[in-house]
Amino acid sequence: MSRHSVSSSIDTHLDWNYDDRVGSTFRTLYERGVRAQWSADDVDWSVPVPYGAPLPDDSAFAMSAFRASPLAERGRPMWDAFRWELQVWMVSQFLHGEQAAMVVAGRLVGSLPDLDSKLCAASQAIDEARHLDVFSRYLREKVGDSYPVSPPLRDLLDDVLLESRWDITALGMQIMVEAVAMAAFRLAESTFHDDLIKDLTRRVGRDEARHVSFGVLSLEGLYQQLTTAERAEREGLVLDAAELIRRRFLLVDIWERLDVDPRVGAEFAATDPLMIRYRQAVFSRVCRALRQVDLLTDRVVRGLVGLDLLPTTGR
Description:
Strand content: under 5%
Helix content: 55-70%
Order of helices and strands: HHHHHHHHHHHHH
Shape: globular
Number of helices: 13
């Protein structure tokens, strides 16, 4: 995989106030993260991964999706191939996202204004390094295959990394990218096919829950203080990010690898009820976080409904 460079200019802030702030919300979150540290050596890497093996039938709902898919004419084994490819693709995108999250956390250490929030960001950077390590090892040693970064994810990460304002960087990564990943980890029991990746996603998911909480705490109350124009700019970022996340889950990379016309595959992913329900499930955590930072506005709700990321009755 080639290297990718993004140039940006960010302000750095140092906080010389070292008063004891035991009991502060950020301090409590930081200490929770310190106590929850784990390492790749804690994982049982002897667990087998039967990559490519036949899989049991999905739910009736999922099998109905298969019969409506462009894979159906190639027989039932192709559905298993798709399900394994989807797992490898998702873990690959987790890996790429974790590297970007590690970089963003490092930036936030410098750009956040107060010491306790810097401690949380530093703790997150260590978490992300560990996540990168275990996902990379899983793909390298247990699967022997991976996907490059999906173009929509790359574009979203570029938008986050190009930004010089810390709150927009945090909004893009902590609220949008991290919350989607956390929701996907929590769905791993029903979407992934081996016990090792389920164990990894359980471990990583616990860390990511703290990261999303950190993002919410950092941004809580901030957007109420902005001008109408400034809030509108943040709403626009949310909707742009949501569109890229939706486009990523049209799975063009997988269709190409399985020799399916990408336009046909993407149309199926865009309209199939199972695929829509999955995207809404992973995006539900984003909506919760947006509500907590006062950005689930009428404009954002209309945009998410239009992208099929929010049910028409949901808010």
